Amino acid sequence: MRADLIDQHIAAMTTASDNLLRQMRDEGLTYRVSVHPEDTGTMHVRVRALTPEIAERIRRCLSGTGMRVAVAAE
């Protein structure tokens, strides 16, 4: 895949994820979303004060993106 398309994909998926997680952010969730150029099929979500319930809620929220979701504590 061309580098410019990879960059566009990463930007689009990051923006889409932020939009999908907006309600949780408004509820006080502190997180960081990233997609790495070497693995554009996985969305990495790093969360402050992560609990199993929050991790599951994030996975459900992002399940329709067509990407694997890796949730980890920050």
Can you offer a commentary on this structure?
The chain has 74 residues and is an alpha+beta fold. It has helices spanning 3-20, 22-26, 52-62, and strands spanning 31-36, 39-47, 68-73. Strands 1-2-3 form a 3-stranded mixed sheet, with helices on one face. It is elongated. 11% of the residues are buried. The model has no long low-confidence stretch (mean pLDDT 94).
List the topology elements.
Elements: H1 3-20, H2 22-26, E1 31-36, E2 39-47, H3 52-62, E3 68-73
Keywords:
elongated, alpha+beta, 3 strands, 74 residues, single chain, three-stranded mixed beta sheet
What percent strand?
25-35%
> Helices and strands: which structural class?
alpha+beta
SSE succession = HHEEHE
> Gyration radius, to the nearest Å?
12 Å
The global form is elongated
- Helical stretch tally: 3
Outline the biggest β-sheet.
Answer: 3 strands, mixed
Strands, total number? 3
What's the short story on this structure?
The chain has 74 residues and is an alpha+beta fold. The chain is built from 3 helices and 3 strands, in the order ααββαβ. Strand 1 and strand 2 form a beta hairpin.
